[in-house]
Each structure stands twice: as structure tokens, then as C-alpha cells.
């Protein structure tokens, strides 16, 4: 018999996917360049030439069995060493290869992190607004994701509600900074208070509450914004990283788990990841891509376009009277809708070929997300549509 | 708290890995070319030039966002179409893209197949001798792997024991033909009887018993051997394929699930794979590698060396008096040891720098595996060591 829980999931449609399908269909009618599709967080800037060159060079010069052969289950040793050295130089923590597990993208890294520290029935807390895939990612392991309501003033952490929900059943707290969908970067003050809370509660409950830090947007931080290293605040941090956004290679599924060197079980945890892999069919990330990213660890795609887009959109939104926390990074912005029901707001926007995603999906009803990883020229053209949409629907009141 | 089941696994050492580590260490003493390392099933023939050329061409000519962008969660549509067309042409079953789910290697494909049809506590049967990773692959899902003892006459299926173990709790039967470790290919007669048994028992129990067919060695079949298409015998077959061996690219983690088009739930099952992925952190295989294999679906590496090696070894073994089923494919052979305890036999062989793996690991004590995916020249040199080992230890009796 087919397993019902997966079969049941087929009837639930993703809002983001439905919107994206609308955008594609509408694009076939009026030309996709005329659809202002802010639905998908799909990196749009070119991959750095150094990455392409590294691949071509290895394909041309390396022995094919060395290039495409099995990777050890924790990742290729030289790649783990290179990642550790880069993290140490960048963040000042004594990372060694023993703290690094190469994983297939952030989703793969998270799949290992959750299984390291939770048994079925245990709870993981995250903070709204949050990436909706965290739901199936956690719940399909048998653990339970619970979502702390947002602090809508600034999309930092609502600590009162957090403390209420931080019961003895919670084995891990999952954060994402810079954040999808808010674009907000957690401040040093937020991270310090989070760490203090976790230490106090870990002691009170007699078990470590791990901090799982999902950091795929770490390299997309805007001018003047301080983006502190999460691991520096809390020893029991499991960092999950993906190169998808920094190198614009989301299809290549490459990232890593980096356990804080100051975590007393760090090396055991990395070795455990190798065992977890056997149960979920990973084994190792693609070898050629592992070797290629190791050659460009300190490079990024030209990410400046995202900041340019953010500034244009943020100015227009605030000029039009939206309440909006200014993003510190990523390629997302998360303004308050102009009516209570953000789904209705986004439905109306479609008539102006503006594809926006209601915040309900992210645990923050009444808000909406714009993913501005699109050409600046298109952003500019979209602003007239946005003005028209707002004026025709909300200014006559 | 760290999850104990994974932590406990760290103390269990893989016999194959220990042997392989011995071989590496011994190689540092006497030169690796003098260690006759038959321990690892690691493809040794070069990758086809067409694969390398396809990668370089795409890297040089395609837009980087198209090449490295997100793949749909079931796989890139054009790749699924190409795989389906190739399977249809090859096996005469009406495969369409709706029957194909692209997966990260056979391990990834199996991780999806097991979750499609088993809940925790359900049983999956496999047949000794078997690939030992099936144990953690299945058991870590919560299902239970049970192993039907071998038919040592020919390493086909021991049907009497199979029927005894095929209880109502069994939801799937897992086979691997051509087989690791025996090298044996299941005959049409075996597959027909297996299919008949599954149909009869499915009806008796009132639930479908699925056949999961792990086929990474499908392209390595020796001259004159008939390797029937498993799916042609049984509608409810889930084929799991990997390009690791056919293209010599095990590190690139690329394969697929192909559900038999005649299975009534085939399309639902493929869609369910996309949901299962979310729970185990897969999402999609590397995009560049998906696109590259689609361009070389009907190519293989030059696999003839494996047959050359097999013939040399098989002749020597039979000349020396070993009982040995002749392999029909793969790069493995699985002879009977010359003493009851194959572990002791393999331990003695190490003194001759022959690295053999005891059959206990594969559910067939008293036998041993040789993985002859090594240079023919080394195979030839190893035969003198094998002769010396046998004569000095077993001929004096």
C-alpha cells in the first residue's frame, strides 16, 4: 500500500508554486517580460566566471576517476579543510575539517541537523516570518515544528512569546538570518539575548537546546548592515550553509554543516552526519561540484543588483505609504498589505500583473513577500504598475 | 541530546572499510601497485569522453542560470523525457516522463522507493548474498530488512525459504540483479517465478507487494548472458537506477526511480517521490549532471575490462579447486572459501597482500567477495599471489 502521508501531501498545493504557475501562464499571453513576477526566490545573477573556469579546468585536466569518483561520506577531505580554513579566517572560530560535513544544499544540511538532535515527538521552534518548507522538512522526520509569532515591529525575535513556547520538549531552535521572507538580519543584541535564553533554559531542563542556524543568505548583506556570526554567540550551534545564493548555483545542491568548534560534541556530531546520510540516501554531494566550490570559497556572484533593487522598491513602498521594515540583506522584502487579508490584496495585484506572495504562507498573515531577484530594469517598470494598483484600489477610500 | 541510534552506529566499523584502510596503509609500505586490493567496488574505467565533452560544452555555451538553476523537484523535464524514451526503446514498456523521478544516485532512489511503500514496522525482504548497506538504508526508515538465506548452488533465489518469510508484514521485496556481491544475473525463470509468487501473495494478503529492483549494474553484463528486464515480469516494479557504474561517475550522485508504466499508481508514486524528497533533504539531483547524462544515455564507459578480469580470475579460481558460480555481470565474484570461517581465510590472504572480503558481511558466511574493478595487469600479477596463498595454506592438508 502506498504511504498515505505522502499521498495526502499531493492534494495540498503550494501557494508560491500556484502564483509562479500563474506568472508563467500569463507570460505566455502578454510576454513574460511584462509579468512582474516577484514570487520565486531564484537567484538571477550570473555564476562567477571563476566557478565555470574551475569546472572546465578540472574536466580538461584531471583524471576522470579522480574527478568523478566516490567522495568519502563526510565530504572530500581537501574540500572540508578548505571550508574550515575559510570559516576560521572569516569568523575567528577554530574550525577544522573535523567540524565540517559536506551536504547537498541547505535542505540536505538541515535534514542532517534535525536528525542529529531530535527524536520523533521532540519539538523544534522557529520564528515567524519563516521559510515554509521548514514545515515538511521538520515534520516528516517525526519531530514537530512550532512557530513563534512574529515581532512585527522589526521582525527580530518576540522574546516573550518565545519563552512561553520554549518548553522542555524543545530540543532545537531554528533561525534564518538574513531572513527569508523579511530580509531582516538579526542584530547582535537579538543573538545575545537568544543565546542567553538558550543557555538558561538548557541548564533548567538539563539538556542542551541546540541552535540550528540556516545561513544561505549570509553573503547577501547590504551596505552599513552588521551581520554578526551566529556561531560566535552560542557554542551549541549547528550552521547550515548553501552556496546556492552566493554563487547562483541552486541547482547544483552544494552546501555544508559546520558544527561550532566550541561545541563539546562537535566531532561526534559530524561523524553522526555520515551515519544519518545512510538512512536518507545522501552519501555525499556531487564530487565535481565539491571540488569546484572549494576553489572559489571567497568569491561570490555579483550580488550588488539585489541591493539596487531593494532600494528602488523600498523607496516606492514607503512613498506609497506602506509599513515596511527595511531589509538588511537577502533578495526579499516583507511589507504590510494595505488591507487585512493579504491573500485578497495579492489577488487584486494580479490584475496589474504584479505577482506577490501573501504572508500567511510565512506565518505572518497581513503581510506579503516580494522576491526581487529579477532584473533592475523590470523592477523599474513594475513600480508604475504598483503605483496604479495602490492608487486605484486603496487611495479612493 | 544527541540521537543515540546514530551515535551507536559510530562504534560499528565496516569490514570493507577496515580492509580498504589496511590496503591503503600496506600500500604506503610496499607501494600500492603491490597490494592486490579486491575490497572496494569503485569503478576504475575512464568516464566516456562524450560525458566530459557534454559538460564542457554546456559550461562554455549555456547561460549559467539555465545550467545551474533549480531543477523541478521531480527532475528536469527534458531529462525525464529523455530517460523515458531511452527506457521505452530499450525495454519495450511505454515509459513516459510521468514515470521517471530523477534521484541522487541509487542510494537516493532507494531512499524514495522504501518510503513510498513502507511504514515503520513493515518488512522488506531481500536475498542473500546482498549489498550490506541495504541494512541501514532500510532500517533507518523505521521499516525492517529481513534477509532470505542464499541458494548457494547458483545464487538465484531460494524459493522455499522465500515463501516461508513472505508474510503479511512484507510490503516490498528488494532485488539486485546483476548482483553485488555474487555477480550473478537472475534468469528469466527466476524472475517469472518471483513475479508469480508476488502476485499470488499480494492477492492472498489483499495488498500489493511491490518489487524494488536495484539495477546499478544493468550495463555490465557479460557475453552470452541473458539479462532480462525485471519490470517486464511484474507490473508493480519500482526500478532504481544509478549511472555510477555505467558511466564511471559514482561521485556525481545521479540516478533515477522508474516506476513501471503498467503499475496502476505509477504517476501518483512519482509525484509522491517529490514529497518524500522534502522530508529527507534531497529536492533534486545536481542540474548540470542531470543535463549531461541526458546527452549520453546510450553510452557507457568501456566496460569490457571487467569481463577480461572476470575470465582471468574465474579460470584461476576453478583451476585451484574453488567452488565458484560464474558471474554473468558486474565486477564481483563470490567464491566459496577454502575453510569454513571465511573471515579467517581472508585474514590469512592478507599475508599475501590479497585483500578479499568475507561473505559474512553479505549474509553468506563461508564465501568471499573479490571486486575486480582494477587494472588487468594487476589482476594478472595477483594470480601468482593467489596460487601461493592457496598452495601454502590449503594444499598440504
How does this structure look, described?
The structure is a homodimer of 397-residue chains. In chain A, helix 5 (77-91) packs parallel to helix 11 (287-294) and helix 6 packs across helix 10 (266-280). Chain A starts with a helix and ends with a helix. Chain A has helices at 4-9, 15-30, 49-61, 64-68, 77-91, 105-117, 134-139, 159-165, 188-205, 266-280, 287-294, 304-319, 342-350, 376-394; strands at 36-37, 100-103, 123-127, 144-148, 170-176, 210-214, 237-242, 255-259, 332-333, 354-355, 357-358, 368-371. In chain A, strands 2-8-7-6-5-3-4 form a seven-stranded mixed beta sheet, sandwiched between helices. Helices cover 42% and strands 12% of the residues of chain A. The model of chain A has no long low-confidence stretch (mean pLDDT 95). The first copy, chain A, is built from 14 helices and twelve strands. With 397 residues, chain A is of the alpha/beta class. Chain A has two domains: 4-47 and 302-394, Aspartate Aminotransferase, domain 1; 49-294, 3-Layer(aba) Sandwich (Aspartate Aminotransferase, domain 2), CATH 3.40.640.10. Chains A and B meet through helix 1, helix 3, helix 4, helix 6 and helix 7 of A and helix 1, helix 3, helix 4, helix 6 and helix 7 of B.
Describe the structure in brief.
The structure is a homodimer of 397-residue chains. Chain A folds into 2 domains: 4-47 and 302-394, Alpha-Beta Complex (Aspartate Aminotransferase, domain 1); 49-294, Type I PLP-dependent aspartate aminotransferase-like (Major domain) (Aspartate Aminotransferase, domain 2, 3-Layer(aba) Sandwich), CATH 3.40.640.10.
